[in-house]
Amino acid sequence: MDKRAVAVLFGGRSSEHSISSATAGGVLRAIDRDRFEVIPIGITREGAFVLEDDDPDKFTLDPHHLPEVVDNGTRVIWPDSTRSRELRVTDATGTRSLGEVDVVLPILHGRFGEDGTIQGFLELLDMPYAGAGLLMSAIGMDKHTTKNVLRAAGVPVVPWVSVTRTGLARDRRLWEQRIRALGLPVFVKPARAGSSVGVSKVDAWDGLDAAFEVAFAEDDTVLVEQAVAGRELECGVLEGRDGGEPRVSVAGEVVISGRDFYDFAAKYLDAPGIDLVCPADLQAGELREMQRIAARAFEAVGGQGLARVDFFFTGTEFYVNEVNTMPGFTPISMFPTCWIASGMTYTELITDVIDTALTRG
Predict the structure, then answer these.
(1) Is 134 inside a domain boundary?
(2) Which structural domain range is residue 291 located in?
(3) Which of 24, 131, 149, 248 is the most exposed place for a label (fewest CB within 10 A)?
């Protein structure tokens, strides 16, 4: 069998640059080399496309030194029209061909990668790519839009208020009334950021302004969400095969024992107070209901590629918190962990995502 050429895109301009780079380390180590020829393309924090080393160890997630894409002087040149899928690279020695690409695997998190921008770029080139499409990516990246779409589809979501700097400046009293109606505590988060970047828990109203400043540093629109007392559960969703129903994994649980919430440090810097349990302890009927809602949420935002659907479970009701269209994909992240617990290997999961894109064409 001829190998298919896969361009793995990682890094990027968002605040989740290092997490994307760490994801690349896991993917480069586990991807099926018998089936795929890999072209690793890093995107620097400034947005330069560089030809990276095909070296998983270089991008290992180390809490003391997060991996990143550094400008090495190379530049990847994309096709200049839809008539070609050939990539080239230029460096100090000149320009050479990297061959034709069969599919792009964008493992980018956050803005300028997970929000539809890179998907639109690839569609302009008519370049097949894995994961969510342009519109689904844009919807999934914006938490306010996601909640509106889910609510319209009958998917239960956590009550929230969205606010902008200009809105606050124009009528602070009105927005405070709407926010205070949610009750305490609340979570304040950027509308378009992931990995819990810019998220704060507010237990007293005098802490609201500080939380706003943290969130507004990431985005111009900020969500204030009502806190839900319950368990934090997650499951993975994959696009159905041959037009079939979405496939949903078993559930995982984020068990919080020594922190206010599942923040960036707990996710990636090995901070204490968090345990990831998979599979989660649920009754069979509870799991079926969670999987049903996850599939409905996935289809509501576009139903393409993959997603991780995050829930709060009160014991009687499931509320969708977020739909992540390119979830953490490191070997220890919840999305792969849930699929491994469902019977897939990490390598098989990567292959499934790529094969879905190849089939779509």
Answers:
(1) no
(2) 139-155+228-360
(3) 149
